[in-house]
Protein: ABC transporter permease
Organism: Pseudorhizobium endolithicum
Amino acid sequence: MTLLRSWQGAFALLLCLLALVRLPLLGPDTSSPFGTGTTAFILLLIALGALASFLRIGRPSRASVLFVTAHLAAWLLIGGISGNEGDARLSYFLLIAASWLLGWRCIAELAEMRPSSRLAMTALRLLIPAIFGTWVLLLWEAITRGAGVPFILLPPPSAIWDRIAGSVPILAADVRQTIFKAVLFGYVVGCAAGFAIAILADRISFLRRGLLPIGNLMSALPIIGVAPIMVMWFGFDWQSKAAVVIVMTFFPMLVNTVAGLSASGSMERDLMRSYASGYWQTLLKLRLPAAMPFIFNALKINSTLALIGAIVAEFFGTPIVGMGFRISTEIGRMNVDMVWAEIAVAAVIGSVFYGVVALAERATTFWHPSNRGG
């Protein structure tokens, strides 16, 4: 049973033995940084982590050993390939795969832990995705450098980071143009307008019946069809990108809010009527609270749609600044690392934006079963 649960450790040990048979790690024509001592230390680390996954010790101790051995081995392997890109042999990739299996086992051990402290549980919820994301970057780095993937096809994360660190003023100007002007303005206006029209449509039945089919139709409109029209209408500055964001965020908010206002049960509405509550009292005290999960669902969807819409709209005309402008121009110059730097910054900002909305939802709808664990 222990062997089945720790199969990652068994496979890591097997890969370690196969790598030992297929040494050296790099080709014969390279000045290999992997001396006998370094290679033996990496093999020992992986073997120690693999054996630790079978030991009957506390889960925190086992996870700690796996964490240290997996990441230290991967760090040594990736550090040694620098300057010898494309010269890695099969044994190198076998050890990378073995380290990854130990990292996988570490995440599995952490996922099964149930700490009693709320602070420890929060830290664990942050640690698990952080380790998972770290391994995505480690594998990306190891494969692109070890296999000698052409830089123009896929640069390694270290090169992307170097570009980000060396282009902070350019990236900051692009973020200010795209995010703090087009995205935020369009997001606020689009969501607020969608919410207001949803309340009006809820009040007027014929408006509700007419708007919802149009909303479903507008949700299917392609961005690349809307963006050039908005640029023609509102010019090349950030206002046209904000208009695209408004169009993209308006209808998801409208449809979700209308659906949420119908989520309250008939018994609750009858009870409010028995208390002689009017429309606005019922709306504020019953129907809007019941609609909050739907409204926040629209806000979370729009947090990503707004960013996508603004960046795509900048492909169709913009001043010489902006994330979409930078991506379109730098890919034409074959500066792929700069394109990936813009993508990475956009991904981080989008994740933070989504996280802020999710935290606001958690604070607002703490009574909902999805936030109470029930």
Q: What stands out?
A: The first helix runs from residue 2 to 5. The CA atoms of residues 49 and 66 lie 5 Å apart. DSSP finds 16 helices and no strands in the chain.
